[in-house]
């Protein structure tokens, strides 16, 4: 990317949670229901080989915000909150005089998880649950849970799962509220104000509840056979993956219209000529590949490959084919905004990523499938080859190599085996948080309900 930027630009960082690349026309010509996203393509840098560093929201975002790998920042299943001490590109923008905001119904990206420390304003739709006491309690109880051993987590997780069934859970993605808050935020901007706005749209993420007209358009006829939460992969006996894919498409179709409302709001407020729109997914979604649903237990290509396009008023649209790690957005966003004058070299030959043992799901992994799903994964991609190392809790590792052009399994190259073996383990260490939160028994119901609605715990 040799073009130069001139002056400062606003930034809208728009994350379409769990959006697969093959459901966007910019990546798949057979798709005909992402017209609003497609309107950005001609003027955007479209990254054809963007890859997340973790297949779920919290560590993926922490890597994007800090530029670190998950095993370095430690924000993962082994520690499901950020300390707030890490430097982020949002903090850079704030220090440079930008107003920073976040509109996010995703509880992983809230003050309760330490992920919005550099935002001046946060709308997370938690209402009265969003206060300093609830934030302290949330962090304390999360730390307490994270500190438990595997067996206590399994027992507690299963009891929490049973308890949640007794309560009605708000599983709305709050998309209309999210877009409404974005429209209000953009309408309040002053002409001479530089701003950064993080937005998370949850519709491509399960549970799937797009408006009925989208369901009808995509031919969904029986929602009872569709998994709506991660645990459904283990508990439903009659999953129809074709019906699931149609429902997912309906959700993406709805998401595209929501994107159109946001870009229209930029135009209506005369902000489009000096605003960079970074549109991306933090990870994808498995829709039945190898019998897997969701994104917590797999590093398959539809999950780790991500959408990424950048509509910049000073840069020409083009296709970027080089492999790109999403964590390098922490370097590029300040440049795109105009606070860094020199374009960083953000590309490399090797892609790395992985996930930890899925502690958040110990409540409902069946015992007879424990060894298959309670594992740590690491992946490396280079020169058209991908190697995955999967390790069980006893330290036994298995390796798999795939030719990315053909999709066929191949012998594991020794150089990539050494590369994946060299990836560090997470060291959660001392969190540095010794605040005086109560005794840990109080748990904010709204936050727990929202996590449960997304399929966690």
Automatic annotation (TrEMBL):
Gene3D superfamilies: Alkaline Phosphatase, subunit A
Highest taxon listed in the record's lineage: Archaea
Residue ranges annotated for the Sulfatase N-terminal domain, each copy included: 10-295
CDD domains, per database record: sulfatase_like
Any single Pfam family the record assigns to this protein: Sulfatase
Acidic residues compositional bias, start-end: 422-449
Region (Disordered): 413-457
SUPFAM superfamilies found in the cross-reference section: Alkaline phosphatase-like
InterPro entries membership: Alkaline_phosphatase_core_sf, GAG_Ulvan_Degrading_Sulfatases, Sulfatase_N
PANTHER family documented for this protein: SULFATASE, SULFATASE N-TERMINAL DOMAIN-CONTAINING PROTEIN
Protein name per UniProt: Sulfatase
Species name: Halohasta litorea
